[in-house]
Every structure is written in structure tokens, then in C-alpha cells.
């Protein structure tokens, strides 16, 4: 029975992918564009050389970290909309180390990453405490803390950490000893963070599927009241889910400032957290699919930047495709559950 349900779900996802691609193709045909040519431009924009592939990885690293963290909170039944703010606070804490710690790279960089983990954790736990102690829904708490994180970033950039002369849009470049190194001039990404992402994925997969904590997390997400009556410490489990998501999001924020931009700027998260929410909805909270889906999304996002140059098309076409895909997968999932419930009732 379980195998049959899994097969039905797989077929539904494949059908949704085909349908979303078909709708996107029809949209392109309606404006006089060749869908195959558009696909080729996106492919070339992501994979035509090693540097373009590195660009995909540079988006994939923080994107996957945020998505992995959200799988944990969503598994616990928590809509952690505040992941954007957690990325920003991770970036702020990492930036503080980069600006004010004058030590060799072997000290500064690990300290900046650890500080980013602490920053993301603290901002996530605030959302958790608002939820568990004061009854503030995590969506409202997360949205409010996202706004506060952005305001605080603007204040730091334009006042406390503003370079000489003021009125800057960022803090100015960080010193070289605080920046994550490139693998090579032809493959400009950081291998250490790629390895860290993969290790995080393995550890989370094992923890979610093979540990007591993973079972308690799932029970809390299914029905927190029933789980509490069965002896599951639901408050502690919820806070642990927020904490892990905050840690991973904080590392993602650190990568944005220590590698992608080499500086702190407003909205440094770049909407990655919100995009990660779409990924988690798409994979139906299944952690095993996250790295692959985020890589596909990152490739489409990065490759689509060439559409405006080569075909005078806006790069937001990629967002249309992603939105259609998530919408259709959710609709097919809802329809499948409805049919199953009707069968059981009948």
C-alpha cells in the first residue's frame, strides 16, 4: 500500500512538471519565442563553462542551507517565514567578525561562520519563544522579525558600520583575510562550503529518519496536542527545529557576505529564504530531494539572467516557471489526498 502511494505521488509530480513546462512553452509561443531556444539559452547560461557552473553553486549553497533548515521546521508543523531575517542576522554577525577581527584567515573565517550560526540561531529562537511562550503565530512573528532584521541592517550600513564619508549602500569591501577563498580562477566557488552543505544534508537525513528526535519532530508536526499527551516535549522540539533552521540559515547569510558580495548590504538575503519555502512545499517536506531540487532551481535562476541579453526576455520568466511548478504540484497533491479520503469514506 505504501509503495503504491509513493508511486502515485511520483507520477503526480512528474505530470505536474510536464504540465508546468507545457504551459510555459505555450506562453513563449504566444509572444513569438521558440521554447527550445529559450531552454538552450538557460542551459548555456548555467553550464557553458566552469565559471558559470560556479555561479550556480554560489546560489545553491545558501539556497540549499535555507531549504534544509525549513524542512526541519515544516516537519514540526511550523511555517518559519522568518528564515529571511535569520539569514540576515547570520550575515550581520559574520560581517561584525570580518570588520573588527584582525587575525589570520584560519582564525577569522571559522569565527565568522560560527558567529553567523549564533546570529541565525538567536533570531530563530526569538520566533520560537514568541510562538511557544506568548502564543504569537510563527508567521506573524517571522514577518515582523524579518522587517526588524532589515531595518537593523540598514542602520548598520548607513551609520555604525558606514565607511568614511557616509551615505553608503554597503559597508565597503571586507579585508581579504576575512573572505572565503575561491577554489580556482576558473571555478570561482568555495569547496569547503559545498562540503559543509553536503554534510548538513547527510546529518539531517539521518537525524530525521533514524533518531528519536526525528520521530518526535514528525509527531509534533502531525498533531502537537496528541504528541504532548503521549509524552513528547513539544515545546522543546519546536524550539530545536527553529534553532537548527536558524543555524543553517545563518551560515547561508555568512556565505552571502563573505563570498558572494564581500560586504554587508541591505536585503543581503536576496529573497532566498522565500524561494526556499517554495522548494519545501514542492518536495513535500522530503529532505532527500532538497539538494537536487535546489540545484535545478539555482541553475534555472542563474541561467535565465542571459535571457535579456540574448533574447530580450525578462529573467523573471524563470520565476514564472518555478511558481507554476510549485502550484501544480500542490494542486495535484491536494487532489490526490481528496480522492484517497473519498475512497476511504466510500
Summarize the structure.
Helices cover 76% and strands 0% of the residues.
Structure description:
With 346 residues, the chain is mostly helical. The chain has two domains: 1-33 and 316-346; 50-312, Orthogonal Bundle (ABC transporter involved in vitamin B12 uptake, BtuC), CATH 1.10.3470.10. It is built from 14 helices and no strands. It has helices at residues 2-30, 35-47, 50-75, 83-100, 105-134, 138-160, 191-210, 212-222, 224-229, 234-260, 272-283, 290-303, 307-311, 317-345. The two termini are 18 Å apart. The model has no long low-confidence stretch (mean pLDDT 89).
Attribute tags:
ABC transporter involved in vitamin B12 uptake, BtuC; 346 residues; mainly alpha
Shape: globular
Q: Which percent range describes the beta-strand content? A: under 5%
Quickly give the structural class.
mainly alpha
CATH architecture of the largest domain: Orthogonal Bundle
Low-confidence stretches: none
How many domains, in number, for the residues? 2
Helix-strand pattern: HHHHHHHHHHHHHH
Average per-residue pLDDT, rounded, comes to: 89
Number of strands: 0
CATH class assignment of the largest domain: Mainly Alpha
- Cα Rg: 21 Å
CATH homologous superfamily classification of the largest domain: ABC transporter involved in vitamin B12 uptake, BtuC
Q: Report the CATH topology name of the largest domain.
A: ABC transporter involved in vitamin B12 uptake, BtuC
N/C terminus separation: 18 Å
Q: What is the count of helical runs?
A: 14
Main pleated-sheet profile: none
The percentage helix is over 70%
Amino acid at each position: 500500500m505504501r509503495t503504491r502511494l509513493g508511486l502515485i505521488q511520483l507520477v503526480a509530480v512528474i505530470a505536474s512538471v510536464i504540465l508546468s513546462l507545457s504551459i510555459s512553452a505555450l506562453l513563449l509561443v504566444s509572444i513569438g519565442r521558440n521554447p527550445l531556444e529559450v531552454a538552450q539559452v538557460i542551459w548555456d547560461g548555467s553550464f557553458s563553462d566552469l565559471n558559470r557552473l560556479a555561479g550556480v553553486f554560489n546560489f545553491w549553497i545558501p539556497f540549499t542551507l535555507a531549504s534544509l533548515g525549513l524542512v526541519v521546521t515544516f516537519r514540526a508543523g511550523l511555517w518559519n517565514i522568518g528564515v529571511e531575517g535569520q539569514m540576515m542576522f547570520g550575515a550581520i554577525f559574520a560581517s561584525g567578525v570580518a570588520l573588527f577581527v584582525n587575525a589570520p584567515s584560519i582564525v577569522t573565517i571559522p569565527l565568522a561562520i560560527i558567529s553567523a550560526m549564533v546570529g541565525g540561531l538567536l533570531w530563530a529562537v526569538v520566533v520560537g519563544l514568541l510562538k511557544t511562550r506568548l502564543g504569537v503565530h510563527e508567521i506573524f512573528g517571522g514577518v515582523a522579525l524579518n522587517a526588524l532584521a532589515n531595518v537593523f541592517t540598514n542602520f548598520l550600513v548607513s551609520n555604525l558600520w558606514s565607511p568614511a564619508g557616509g551615505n553608503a549602500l554597503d559597508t565597503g569591501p571586507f579585508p581579504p583575510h576575512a573572505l572565503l577563498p575561491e577554489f580556482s580562477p576558473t571555478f570561482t566557488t568555495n569547496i569547503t562550503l559545498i562540503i559543509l552543505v553536503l554534510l548538513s544534508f547527510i546529518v539531517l537525513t539521518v537525524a530525521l529518519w533514524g533518531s528519536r528526535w526525528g520521530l518526535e519532530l514528525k509527531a509534533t508536526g502531525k498533531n502537537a496536542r496528541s504528541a504532548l499527551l503521549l509524552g513528547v516535549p513539544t515545546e522543546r522540539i519546536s524550539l530545536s527545529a527553529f534553532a537548527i533552521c536558524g543555524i543553517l540559515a545563518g551560515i547561508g547569510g555568512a556565505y552571502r557576505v563573505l563570498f558572494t558580495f564581500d560586504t554587508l548590504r541591505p536585503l543581503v538575503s536576496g529573497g532566498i529564504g522565500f524561494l526556499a519555502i517554495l522548494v519545501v512545499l514542492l518536495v513535500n517536506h522530503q529532505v532527500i530531494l532538497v539538494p537536487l531540487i535546489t540545484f535545478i532551481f539555482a541553475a534555472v535562476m542563474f541561467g535565465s539572467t542571459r535571457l535579456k541579453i540574448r533574447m530580450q526576455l525578462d529573467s523573471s520568466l524563470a520565476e514564472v516557471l518555478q511558481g507554476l511548478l510549485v502550484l501544480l504540484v500542490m494542486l495535484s497533491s491536494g487532489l490526490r489526498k481528496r480522492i484517497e479520503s473519498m475512497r476511504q469514506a466510500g
